[in-house]
Amino acid sequence: MSKPKHPRMLADTEAQALLSNVRVSPRKLNLVAALIRNQPAQAAVATLTFSKRRIAQQVKKALESAIANAENNHQLDVDRLVVTKAEVGKSVVMRRFHARGRGRSARIEKWFSHLKIVVAEKSQDAPAIVTEEAA
Predict the structure, then answer these.
(1) What are the φ and ψ backbone dihedral angles of 11, each rounded to 5 degrees?
(2) Could you give the C-alpha distances from 3 to 6, 8, 9, 84, in angstroms and in order?
(3) How many domains are contained in the chain?
(4) Which domain holds residue 59?
(5) Based on CB atoms within 10 Å of each CB, which residue in 103, 119, 128, 133 is the most buried?
């Protein structure tokens, strides 16, 4: 006897990738995640490739994993994928002590984060983003 199968929480046109316990603070990771939210998947990969932030390479690997999950597990079209969610959450905090002057100490906090990237397949007839020239 086993537990019943956990129902799928995402739509049929969505796929996700999770990155747990990343050694970066949630605030810094959220700055990188904000770069790729609501972008086409290929544009998001290009953005992360040329980002100067240290954590961008790990976020890029997670995004490529989400794209591969969409293609291989859910048979979605890679060319029509869009990053719909890039959620950042808090994880554990390592607390260390640093010796200070006159016998005192100061607490150093080393933050860890979680990242969840969801990509979805958008239809061909979806409205295009309006630019200033077209308006």
Answers:
(1) -70, 170
(2) 8, 15, 17, 31
(3) 1
(4) 14-121
(5) 119
